[in-house]
Amino acid sequence: MTTTRDEAAGELHPSGDDRFALVDKHLKRVRYEQDQLIETLHVAQDVFGYLSDDVLIYVARALMLPPSMVYGVATFYQLFTFEAPGDHACTVCTGTACYVKGADDIVQSVREAHDVAAGATSEDGRLTLKTARCLGSCGLAPVVVLDGTVHGHLDAAEVLALVQQALEEEEAD
Ligand code: FES
């Protein structure tokens, strides 16, 4: 007996990871339209936190697109990330307004203090450091987003203190 794609949607993925069911639900809602690729990648990233090879291949199969094309589209957009994020994420805007207000100092300070390269996660998995182009809040420059909260007008020392506080709060939990 064969299972149609619609019937399969919502069933538990063979890996046992039920997050795939959420992606399936979205795919079903958009009727597996290939032009929904970017939207589907967004949903997958929201669900998994990042786009692993497995997830990219899964989406490619579901939309019947070549994996190379899906990978190409995903890597074209800065919004997608391909590594599992750390427990905390610090994104520093390095757009022009933020750059002139010291964004580079902030990146360097966090990098040195936590031994994590920009675009990577620390070895202990606790902190991901990212940079972004203009986040659209230049009036707050330099802008830092820490665990989803936007902070503006902070210098490197203040950002370091915030990051430290976030890491310590987690330890206290
Ligand atoms: S340049 Fe950083 S918010 Fe615009």
The portion of residues forming beta strands comes to 5-15%
Order of helices and strands: HHHHHEHHEEEEH
CATH class of the largest domain: Alpha Beta
Mean pLDDT: 88
Strand order of the largest sheet: 2-3-1-4-5
User: What distance separates the N and C termini?
Assistant: 50 Å
For the record, the CATH architecture of the largest domain stands as 3-Layer(aba) Sandwich
Q: Identify low-pLDDT runs.
A: none
Bound ions, cofactors and other small molecules, one mention each: FE2/S2 (inorganic) cluster
Tally the helices.
Answer: 8
The named CATH superfamily of the largest domain: Glutaredoxin
Number of domains: 2
Overall geometric form: elongated
Kindly describe this structure:
This protein is an alpha+beta fold and 173 residues long. It contains eight helices and five strands, in the order αααααβααββββα. It folds into two domains: 5-76; 88-172, Glutaredoxin, CATH 3.40.30.10. The protein has a five-stranded mixed sheet with strand order 2-3-1-4-5, covered by helices on one side. The chain starts with a helix and ends with a helix. The model has no long low-confidence stretch (mean pLDDT 88).
